[in-house]
Backbone:
């Protein structure tokens, strides 16, 4: 018997870029990125909602790529939002078009849209030819400050979020801030919850900045909004590139603070509850639990509460009260599903202070229930 353990290291470059008006003739960023890879073909997937908000965009893309080193083969305008992840139809459309247009592994698939659209199209790109170069253009606050700069792709299955998917480093991510300012204000504001999250788990100074600029962020003031999105995106990208576990081989998921409950709430609502709203509720639940566990001070929790309230984040949802057939709170099943998604030991991140966190491997169900009861009472007081 013989055994050889041969370490394998594959270098990646995670290109994360920020700009305005990426498809204007005078902006060289995308042309330079495409030339850097040396590919000759490009296929574009454009989310329908983005095309409706920017009706001139397909023509701008066509003219821009005509002056580049690649040949544009087609622009496909497709429906997005969470519904595009409900099955594999969009993924199969990508496969069909990659084959039809002879898009090889040195060609480009350019995807422009929100996080769910990027997830589904990205999974198609990651699995066609075992990986076609993907250039992501996130268009929402939620995708620009979090998921769009990540390395995950996926669709939903078995009633669970992102059950089918892949890890694949995109060839480039281009955050074009211009797209942010056409988004529905309420949805745009909600998307900043991921910036609050990463500040709480990674950077006390960033959280203090959000705290000082909460009113400006609530009003979606241009300078504050773009600075917040940029800082959040870079923290997410740094964690992926420097955190030592970009493809989540371990059991710890620090960027998923508040997400064990959020993913279950989305499922319990039939995905009617948006990811951003679910994360806001799940984050506040874990803040409350951190206090109950004696980890986080009441004063720091109050600071977080004030930021969430100022920025109009939801802090309770009725699906938290749903019961399963045994009479247990249905959201509690999210803990096991969270563990099951990675395997290994349950690992949930809680807070000691803004910017300081700790992994725990158990959450007491009665404490969670008590936190939910307190959240419900607070929400009722605010409503009345």
Residues:
């Amino acid at each position: 018997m013989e055994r050889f353990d041969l370490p394998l290291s594959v270098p990646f470059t995670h290109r994360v870029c920020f700009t305005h008006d990426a498809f204007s003739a005078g902006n060289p960023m995308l042309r330079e990125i495409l030339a850097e890879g040396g590919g000759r073909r490009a296929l574009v997937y454009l989310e329908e909602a983005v095309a409706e908000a920017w009706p001139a965009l397909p023509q701008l893309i066509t003219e821009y790529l005509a002056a580049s080193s690649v040949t544009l083969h087609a622009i496909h305008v497709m429906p997005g939002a969470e519904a595009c992840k409900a099955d594999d139809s969009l993924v199969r459309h990508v496969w069909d078009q990659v084959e039809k247009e002879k898009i090889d592994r040195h060609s480009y698939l350019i995807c422009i849209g929100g996080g769910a659209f990027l997830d589904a199209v990205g999974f198609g790109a990651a699995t066609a030819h075992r990986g076609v170069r993907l250039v992501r253009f996130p268009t929402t606050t939620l995708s620009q400050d979090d998921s769009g700069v990540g390395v995950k792709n996926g669709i939903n299955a078995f009633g669970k979020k992102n059950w089918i998917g892949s890890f694949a480093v995109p060839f480039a991510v281009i955050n074009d801030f211009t797209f942010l300012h056409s988004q529905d204000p309420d949805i745009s504001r909600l998307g900043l919850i991921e910036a609050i999250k990463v500040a709480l788990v990674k950077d006390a100074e960033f959280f203090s900045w959000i705290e000082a600029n909460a009113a400006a962020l609530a009003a979606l003031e241009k300078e504050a909004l773009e600075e917040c999105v940029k800082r959040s995106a870079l923290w997410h990208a740094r964690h992926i590139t420097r955190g030592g576990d970009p493809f989540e081989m371990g059991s710890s998921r620090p960027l998923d603070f508040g997400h064990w409950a959020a993913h279950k709430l989305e499922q319990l609502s039939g995905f009617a509850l948006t990811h951003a709203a679910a994360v806001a509720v799940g984050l506040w639940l874990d803040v409350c639990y951190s206090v109950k566990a004696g980890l986080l001070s009441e004063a720091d929790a109050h600071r977080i509460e004030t930021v969430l309230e100022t920025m109009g984040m939801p802090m309770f949802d009725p699906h938290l009260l749903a019961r399963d057939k045994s009479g247990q709170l249905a959201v509690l099943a999210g803990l096991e599903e969270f563990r099951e998604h990675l395997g290994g030991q349950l690992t949930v991140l809680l807070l000691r202070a803004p910017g300081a966190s700790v992994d725990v491997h158990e959450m007491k169900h009665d404490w969670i229930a008590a936190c939910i009861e307190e959240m419900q009472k607070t929400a009722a007081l605010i409503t009345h």
Q: What stands out?
A: The domain at 186-233+251-383 is CATH 1.20.1090.10 (Dehydroquinate synthase-like, alpha domain).
